Amino acid sequence: MAVYHADALVIRSREFGESDRVLTLFSRELGKLQAVAKGVRKPKSRQRAGVQLFTYGDFLIYRGKTLDTVSQCSPRESFPYLWNDLDRSFAATGMAELLDISTLAAQPNPELFALTLTCFFLLEQFDPFLVLSAYALRLMTLLGYRPRLGECAECGVSISGERLFFSSDAGGTLCGQCRETYGGRWIQAGSIAFMRQLIRADITKLDRLRWNAWMQHEILEILQFYLEYKFERPLKSWRMGSLTQDDMGRQTKSKEGEKFE
Ligand SMILES: [Zn+2]
Description:
Helix content is 38%, strand content 22%. It is of the alpha+beta class and 261 residues long. The protein folds into 2 domains: 3-78, CATH 2.40.50.140; 81-255, Recombination protein O, C-terminal domain (de novo design (two linked rop proteins)). A 5-stranded mixed beta barrel has the order 1-2-3-5-4. Strands 7-6-8 form a 3-stranded antiparallel sheet. Helix 2 runs antiparallel to helix 3, helix 3 packs parallel to helix 6 (213-231) and helix 5 packs across helix 6. Residues 152, 154-155, 157, 174-175, 177-178 line the site of zinc ion.
């Protein structure tokens, strides 16, 4: 029976049969793959810890006829800080879901793997929504969907003004003339400029960037709008969580004078 190694992150885990789980792994060498972890829902399973959601490790996998099976997992990192903080947990779930809906199985993308792993580590220290937004924009860039920001996505002229018109269909901001034929929404020019910084900045120094609650809300909303349009799938975790609705709550609080960075 063929066996292979995968240096991988568990990005999805769902119950299967009586005591198994089907894992979706994103691996450095092989891209996205699925494998069954047998018996891991039994309390005494030795593999239980290794196959938890968001575990990064070395997986030894048997190739099966229909579904592969995890034979061994040596965890390298389990990101414990994701489990005791709601915002970090939402950001991690949002990144994992986006990675899942934006990639096809068995298409290696080592750069995307490295970006994902880096961002999971950055969640320990940095504003989780800043990490999530930078991740989404850089993932789009790596997959060839980088939005055009601050210039017209249709005719290329540079655009100025306090508010810019963003169209998912056109893949970025649009000038007054090209806007006529597309649907979209308005966004503050400051938010567009910040999105450009999120793509360009050294990712390990993201914490130097400062945004306010309004920009955060606007950027997450426009990203969700664009990502869902491009991949034709709802981003359930982005919709459900504190990413849009609860952030409005936080935004109100910060307007009342609470510090918000
Ligand atoms: Zn134009």
